[in-house]
Each structure stands twice: as C-alpha cells, then as structure tokens.
Amino acid sequence: MSQPSNKPTLTPQFCFNETALRGKGGPFINAHLAPSANTIHSRVDFLRISRIAIDDSIIQNLNALITPARAGFDPSSTAERQDPSLKRKPVDPEACQGFKDNVLFQSWQTRSDVLSYCAGVAVNPEDPDLIAREAESAKDRERVVDERLDPYSGRFFPREARTESLANLIRNERGVEGIIRARTWGLVRERCEDVGMGWEEALNRWRASQESTQGQESR
Question: pTM here?
C-alpha cells in the first residue's frame, strides 16, 4: 500500500495500449468502451493506483511513522492503520525524511517519468526518448515537456488524432499532479516540523541528490 510506485516498462505501446497498465488486482476496464476510451482509462488507472497508495493515504502513512520513528523508517510499517488520535501529532523528523526520500519523492518521480515519456510519444511516437535527450536532469525535463505540450509554443506538432489526444491527456494529468502534490505536501508540512520549503523545491533537491549519487556510482 505504501511502497513506492513501481515504474512500468516504458514503450510507445504502454502509452497507447489499453491493457498496458492492467495488473493483478487492478481495476477492470469495461469491454464495451471504445478503444480510445479504454486507452485513456488504462493510463489513468496507473496514476490513480499510485495516487491512492501514496497521496490519498498520506494521513495514514504519516500516522504510521510515529510508532517506528525511533527505529528508523520502515516502509512496511505504513501499511498498518493507526489510532485516529495520532492525526495531528508531530512526526519524528528522521522518520519523515526517510518517508519522503524513499517513498513519497520516489513515487512522484515515477509518475513524472511516465508522464514525460508519454509526452515524448505524443510529440514523436517514432522517437519517444527525444525529450530525455534534450534535457539531462529531471528538473529540465519538466520544462521541456511543458514547452513541447504547449499548443501555443510553436513546438507542438501533433501528427495524428491519437497523439493529439494523448498530448491533451498528459497536459491534464500534469495539472492534476500539481494539485495533488500541493495538497499532500501541505499535510507533510503540518506533521513534519523540519519542512520549510515548497514541494517543487523539495522534489528538485531530492532529484539533484539522486542524480549526484548516480553520477558518482557511474564513475
């Protein structure tokens, strides 16, 4: 429930195929829906499942950090529901940091990666990695995606109806992500007393740290 969202294998078919995200225990997609509708529901199912597990359950996840705080963060501990009286109790900063680094930011980044990749598919299905090559860092990819999906930027060239539909969906879902993350971060800031920055700055700092670590490991 509270484990970080797993990144699926990203291919153009993943973005267009109605069954790409349907897994064991996942919601059923109505067989009577038109292919295009099935595709949209499938992509949204991935995002919905991740959001339910992490963001919609943020209060339970934070409550569950209180008991195991002294022993450090244990991802499996957040799967257990806690006493409602803990709802507003401050959480140990170390436990909060572990949750943010290992679950929250990781899940947000997984969703960002999926949306960025599918944005690349919408721009050019034959070369979906174009956006990734244009921007080295995750932060820069967000900017490039916004530019490429902006119908008024002069760089958005939908080639067919399905890519235009995909581009519209990605634009909408990126907007939804911003709203959800702001709401989740507001609750995190209430409970984690060491948090003083906005979610975008915090996520970008985490990204920079991850990229620095990966760079050192690759040397």
Answer: 0.74
Asked whether the predicted pLDDT for residue 206 surpasses 70, the reply is yes
* Dist CA 145 CA 78 (whole Å): 33
Tell how far CA 88 is from the center of its chain: 26
Residue corresponding to tokens 């899940």: 107
Q: Which residue has the tokens 């119908």?
A: 151
Q: Is the pLDDT of residue 53 over 80?
A: yes
Q: What whole-number distance in Å separates Cα of residue 133 and Cα of residue 45?
A: 28
Q: Which two tokens stand for residue 10?
A: 């990203």
Name the token pair of 66. 């209180």
Taking the C-alpha atoms of residue 76 and residue 129, their distance in angstroms, rounded to an integer, is 34
Task: Tell me the C-alpha distance between 37 and 42, whole Å.
Answer: 9
**DSSP letter for each residue of 46-99:** HHHHHHHHHTTTHHHHHHHTTTTGGG---GGGGGS---GGGTT----HHHHHHH
Is the Cβ–Cβ distance between 46 and 173 less than 8 Å? no
Distance between CA atoms of 193 and 96, rounded to whole angstroms?
A: 9
**Cβ pair 7, 106 in contact under 8 A:** no
**pLDDT tens profile 85-143:** 555 678 888 899 999 999 999 999 999 998 988 888 888 887 777 666 766 667 677 77
